[in-house]
């Protein structure tokens, strides 16, 4: 009897060791997560260190201006703000046309800091909002991946997301755009969905709806969530994985989430009236039909159940057909079938170039090139396939969601380069799973083959404890049928008794698992070499991410830099031009420019613009494009009808700055010609080629954009050589009859390597 006593006394020791390991692991995970958050925040500060605390790009200036208004006037005036400084003479209702999540988040942070007597400016809060939420996104990635494959995979995925260049490009300090908070909301919504799916908790389901509401407030990309989750629910139903947990995870999201989404003014009734949301309602009906079938199966006899299923399926099909007919009737009257232009561009990549050139003209709406994948996700592109395979070992509801997420995000990223941002979290999650599983296999193989490790001690203590507990649970489960059989003996109970007798003991089960792991262990040399290769791969990823953060994605587009033999030159021509407009023009003067510069002009020059980056009125943009494409007299008449006093043109031919208006000019022609048929693109092309040299067409050489860009350009070097187009211009000497040059950026005339920016009167 001594042996059983010894065995019984050893079990509590394993439980105690396991508890200590769990506590230590939890504390260690917390500190690792803290360091990952610090890394995510600090790696995005290169732009502030190298330049200054400044807002980047174009759209962030509008968000900054709106946040300033919110902090000064309050939330009520924000919702009712009519902005008369944009889209003159139409204006714009700001409260009903913006996603307010970013603005309200930054405004709340500013209010809290000032309540604590931390007097930070609104601009400072806006600059650092994106780095702060990148740390939160890393935490959300950890939580999501932990629900799928455990804490080790979660920590790995969080570390990868903290540094992935694709996410850094949209979350550096100063990148105050919707994606700054939306990516966190996206990942956190997915985490709460998986958490609800794993637990069946209505509490988490409610939190999931609230997180979805925050996502709707933050970014139009919320439609990705409301389509991906229904796809996963339908996949689970089709593959026979329906459960009450699936119902709890999905039904409250559709009902409560849709009601909350409709509260956002920019969404409103679109939450139930547009085609982007119809898939969620269709799956909502299907899951209720399936739930009803499972319910009646439990209360009816098999014969009655077959009759009832026939009835339910018939009624369900009739209801689905009726709903589909109603939806078809609703969308048939719309030329886009109820889809937005951007959504149609995702479903049909050629749609925008054919029908909506204003969407196709945006650089971030173009499809990515293959090198951009290696630039933005680097080695993760090679780890993703391994992570997908690991998700099938075993395939669970949570891991099937990750597979569906990565598959859809890969497709959408291939259509639009902007959606590389949606791919980044999915790539980090699958890569984290792959790396975690690889490290487990390799370190386990090394443990089994280290000298001095006995056959029984080869199993990890924590895993031994877990296996022993699992074996004891199996014994308890096997005992329950035996107890029941005492009251009602049957063939079924006898069969269970035989199975119980044949059950191996906990100790033999652990030993069997250890032997299996030994058989599956890799050779020691191969394990060590593979482990070192993974470490080198990780080091290469870190170096690339730091380089991308420091050099590729930290330079603000509003501040230009150039390196030469005498050092680094910083050119502040953009802000100089806007400052000139602010100090040398009347408050009520109207400024015309291409829509790219509208947000910056209103935010930095505080002047009224004709069009801006919101691009909500294609006709108004086409009018400006037509003016730029027309001869000088016709352009003057168009601008005069719009009460324009100044025209802003960006020209980079002097220094080789490629993002100037001459390179964007064909889009002005296409958009203008889409509304005004007398503007024809072939008139500006020579044998199908866009040229500005001596072979350029007369229409091109006499249009307003050509004249404003190249006016007195020959005086710079005597040859009028365009460094962007790498050719001498075709028409060098001409005078302006209806426009007068008021100012040009000073550095463009005094130092090569800057852009030329010409406001004209």
What's the quick description here?
With 761 residues, the protein is mainly α.
Please give a structural write-up.
The protein has 761 residues and is mainly alpha-helical. The protein has a four-stranded mixed beta sheet, sandwiched between helices. A two-stranded antiparallel ribbon has the order 1-2. The chain has a two-stranded antiparallel ribbon with strand order 3-4. Strand 5, helix 28 and strand 6 form a beta-alpha-beta unit. Helix 10 runs parallel beside helix 12. Its cofactor is Mn(2+); Mg(2+). It is found in: Endomembrane system. Its main location: membrane.
Unreliable parts = 1-11, 454-503, 748-761
Outline the biggest β-sheet: 4 strands, mixed
Give the neighbour order of strands across the main sheet. 6-5-7-12
Total strand count, please?
12
Question: Helices, strands, pairings?
Answer:
Elements lengths: L1 H41 L3 H5 L8 H15 L1 H5 L2 E2 L8 E2 L7 H15 L6 H28 L1 H13 L1 H4 L10 H21 L2 H17 L3 H17 L5 H18 L8 H4 L4 H22 L2 H31 L8 H7 L3 H5 L1 H4 L9 H7 L3 H12 L5 H19 L4 H30 L11 H25 L5 H12 L3 H15 L3 H29 L7 E5 L2 E5 L1 H12 L5 E3 L5 H8 L2 E2 L8 H12 L2 H10 L4 E6 L9 H15 L9 E2 L2 E2 L7 H5 L1 H7 L3 H4 L3 E2 L4 E2 L17 H5 L5 E5 L1
Parallel strand pairs: 5-6, 5-7
Antiparallel strand pairs: 1-2, 3-4, 7-12, 8-9, 10-11
Describe this protein with a few key phrases.
two-stranded antiparallel sheet; mainly alpha; 12 strands; Oligo_trans_STT3; 4-stranded mixed beta sheet; 35 helices; 761 residues; glycosyltransferase; disordered C terminus; single chain; transmembrane; disordered N terminus
């Amino acid at each position: 009897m001594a042996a059983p006593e010894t065995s019984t006394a050893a079990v509590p020791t394993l439980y105690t060791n396991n508890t200590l390991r769990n506590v230590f692991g939890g504390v260690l995970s917390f500190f690792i997560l803290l360091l990952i958050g610090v890394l995510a925040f600090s790696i995005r500060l290169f732009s502030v260190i190298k330049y200054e605390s400044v807002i980047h790009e174009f759209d962030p200036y509008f968000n900054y201006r709106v946040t300033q208004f919110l902090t000064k006037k309050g939330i009520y005036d924000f919702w009712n703000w009519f902005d008369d400084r944009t889209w003159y003479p139409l204006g714009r209702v700001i409260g009903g046309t913006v996603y307010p999540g970013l603005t309200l988040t930054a405004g709340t942070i500013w209010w809290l800091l000032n309540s604590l007597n931390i007097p930070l400016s609104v601009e400072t809060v806006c600059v650092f909002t994106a780095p702060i939420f990148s740390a939160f996104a890393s935490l959300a990635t950890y939580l999501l991946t932990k629900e799928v494959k455990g804490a080790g995979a979660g920590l790995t995925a969080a570390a990868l997301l903290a540094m992935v260049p694709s996410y850094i490009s949209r979350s550096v300090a100063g990148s105050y755009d919707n994606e700054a908070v939306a990516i966190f909301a996206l990942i956190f919504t997915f985490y709460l969905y998986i958490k609800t799916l794993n637990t069946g908790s209505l509490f988490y389901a409610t939190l999931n709806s609230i997180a979805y509401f925050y996502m709707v407030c933050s970014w139009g990309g919320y439609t990705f969530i409301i389509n991906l989750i229904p796809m996963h629910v339908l996949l689970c139903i089709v593959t026979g994985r329906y459960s009450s947990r699936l119902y709890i995870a999905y039904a409250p999201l559709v009902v409560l989430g849709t009601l909350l989404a409709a509260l956002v003014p920019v969404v409103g009734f679109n939450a139930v009236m547009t085609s982007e949301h119809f898939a969620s309602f269709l799956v909502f009906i299907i899951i209720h039909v399936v739930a009803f079938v499972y319910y009646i199966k439990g209360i009816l006899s098999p014969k009655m159940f077959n009759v009832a299923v026939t009835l339910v399926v018939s009624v369900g099909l009739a209801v689905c057909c009726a709903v589909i007919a109603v939806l078809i009737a609703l969308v048939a009257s719309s030329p886009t079938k109820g889809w937005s232009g951007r959504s149609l561009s995702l479903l049909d990549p050629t749609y925008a170039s054919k029908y909506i050139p204003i969407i196709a003209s945006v650089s971030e709406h173009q499809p990515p090139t293959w090198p951009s994948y290696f630039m933005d996700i680097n080695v993760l592109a090679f780890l993703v396939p391994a992570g997908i395979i690991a998700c099938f070992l075993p395939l669970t509801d949570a891991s099937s969601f990750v597979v569906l997420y990565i598959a859809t995000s890969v497709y959408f990223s291939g259509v639009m380069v902007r959606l590389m941002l949606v791919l980044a979290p999915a790539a980090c999650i699958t890569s984290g799973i792959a790396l975690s599983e690889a490290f487990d296999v390799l370190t386990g193989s090394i443990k089994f083959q280290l000298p001095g490790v006995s056959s029984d001690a080869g199993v990890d203590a924590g895993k031994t404890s877990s296996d022993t507990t699992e074996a004891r649970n199996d014994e308890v489960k096997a005992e329950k049928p035996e107890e029941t059989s005492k009251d009602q003996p049957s063939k079924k109970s006898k069969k269970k008794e035989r199975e119980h007798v044949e059950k191996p003991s906990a100790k033999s089960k652990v030993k069997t698992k250890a032997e299996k792991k030994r058989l599956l262990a890799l050779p020691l040399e191969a394990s060590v070499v593979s482990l070192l290769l993974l470490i080198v791969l990780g080091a290469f990823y870190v170096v690339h991410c730091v380089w991308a953060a420091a050099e590729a994605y930290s330079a603000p587009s509003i501040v230009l830099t150039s390196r030469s033999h005498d050092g680094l030159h910083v050119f502040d021509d953009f802000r100089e031009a806007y400052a000139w407009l602010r100090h040398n023009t009347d408050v009520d003067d109207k400024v015309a420019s291409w829509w790219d510069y509208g947000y910056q002009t209103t935010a930095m020059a505080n002047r009224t613009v004709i069009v801006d980056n919101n691009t909500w009125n294609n006709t108004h943009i086409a009018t400006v494009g037509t003016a730029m494409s027309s001869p000088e007299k016709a352009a003057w008449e168009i601008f005069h009808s719009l009460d324009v006093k100044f025209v802003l043109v960006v020209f980079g031919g002097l220094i080789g700055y490629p993002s100037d208006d001459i390179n964007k000019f064909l889009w002005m022609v296409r958009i203008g010609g889409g509304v005004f048929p007398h503007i024809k693109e072939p008139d500006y092309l020579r044998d199908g080629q866009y040229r500005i040299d001596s072979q350029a067409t007369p229409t091109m050489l006499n249009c307003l954009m050509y004249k404003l860009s190249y006016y007195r350009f020959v005086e710079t070097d005597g040859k009028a050589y365009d460094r962007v187009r790498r050719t001498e211009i075709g028409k060098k000497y001409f005078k302006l009859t209806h426009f007068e040059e008021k100012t040009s950026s000073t550095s463009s005339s005094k130092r090569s390597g800057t852009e030329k920016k010409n406001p004209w009167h």
